[in-house]
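Re: [ENG-882] Designed sequences occasionally contain unexpected residues at chain ends

Forwarding the minimal case from QA. Structure tokens:
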């Protein structure tokens, strides 16, 4: 460790520690880590390659008294233009593994594994239950945390258990039945890192599985503006209603603030048409929210997660 380490803060010490199993970046633009291509700098972006490195980061943040948050592929995130004044933790090496467990019908995937890779493996293994997730970007950790899915089905329908790392209990396994799986949210605590997930599925015919996946993908390509940066659906669907339909009927398709625009293809997508700021997206969300409330008396709730606001 260099002489500077004497005066370094606990998080800076990780940066200077050659034995740290990961990488520490300072003032890392979050626009590089979000599907929106929007977001100011994180004070630190730390990639932790092993569970012990995750614990080290948590301990360093607690000692220094700075906030931390874990991020997957940033496909459901709006990061403020000012950035995040703490540690953004991303999971590396040990959390990217995907494999079939010896028990038929089970897949074990690390928190940083891509959901799309797990969906493909399930198909190749002739396992049904994840067809709904085809085309959903992001990691297993993000998908589990968000209970990602459609209006009717989410990750909670296939997850058997998750391994969490949290500052209090350390590494521990939680059964899916002990987690509340709500529409685009779960009861997994905010300070828990999803390190691994075990998925359990039924066997089925590969041709049928592939057919359902192709149909879902075709529907997605037709109805979503996949060529422009976005975070997917911006608002949750209110009970018994469609946010996209309400936004469309309120005449908001094409409404713009700066580089942010309500998509002409899917009204619940706000796309970055080039150079949009987080403030542009936020202001446009406010306009859409108040116009829909005026027209329907319903307050739309955001599905996108905010960071640094
Ligand atoms: C084109 C497009 C289409 C989309 N379609 C869908 C869809 O059909 N259905 C759907 O539900 N969503 C959809 N999304 C939104 C998004 O892809 C999902 O929510 C996805 O599961 C987020 O994964 P992520 O790794 O990018 O998570 P991030 O966006 O990085 O994070 C999302 C949340 O999860 C938390 N998180 C991430 N990783 C972990 C971890 N390892 N442990 C604990 N918490 C963690 C973060 O702190 C944050 O609160 C879409 C997005 C886009 C851009």
């Amino acid at each position: 460790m260099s002489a500077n380490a004497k005066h370094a803060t606990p998080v800076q010490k990780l940066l200077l520690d050659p034995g740290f199993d990961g990488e520490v970046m300072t003032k890392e633009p979050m626009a590089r880590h979000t599907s929106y291509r929007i977001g100011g700098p994180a004070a630190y972006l730390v990639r932790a390659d092993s569970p012990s490195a995750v614990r080290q980061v948590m301990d360093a943040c607690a000692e220094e008294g700075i906030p931390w948050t874990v991020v997957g592929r940033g496909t459901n995130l709006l990061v403020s233009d000012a950035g995040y004044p703490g540690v953004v933790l991303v999971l590396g090496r040990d959390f990217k593994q995907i494999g079939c467990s010896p028990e038929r019908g089970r897949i074990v995937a690390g928190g940083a594994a891509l959901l799309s890779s797990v969906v493909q493996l399930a198909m190749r293994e002739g396992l049904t239950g994840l067809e709904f997730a085809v085309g959903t970007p992001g990691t297993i950790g993000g998908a589990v945390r968000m209970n990602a899915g459609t209006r009717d089905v989410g990750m909670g329908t296939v997850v058997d258990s998750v391994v969490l790392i949290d500052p209090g209990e350390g590494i521990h396994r939680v059964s899916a039945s002990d987690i509340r799986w709500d529409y685009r949210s779960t009861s997994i605590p905010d300070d828990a890192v999803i390190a691994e997930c075990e998925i359990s599925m039924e066997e089925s015919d590969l041709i049928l599985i592939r057919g359902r996946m192709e149909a879902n993908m075709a529907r997605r390509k037709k109805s979503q503006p996949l060529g422009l940066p976005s975070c997917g659906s911006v608002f949750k669907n209110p009970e018994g209603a469609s946010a996209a339909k309400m936004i469309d009927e309120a005449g908001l398709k094409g409404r713009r603030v700066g580089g942010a625009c309500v998509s002409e293809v899917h009204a619940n997508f706000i796309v970055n048409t080039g150079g949009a700021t987080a403030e542009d997206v936020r202001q446009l969300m406010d306009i859409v929210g108040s116009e829909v409330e005026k027209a329907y008396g319903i307050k739309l709730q955001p599905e996108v997660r905010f960071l640094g606001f």
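QA comment: On inspection the terminal residues look reasonable. Residues 96-208 form a domain with the Uridine Diphospho-n-acetylenolpyruvylglucosamine Reductase; domain 3 fold (CATH 3.30.465.10). Proposing we downgrade this to a documentation issue.
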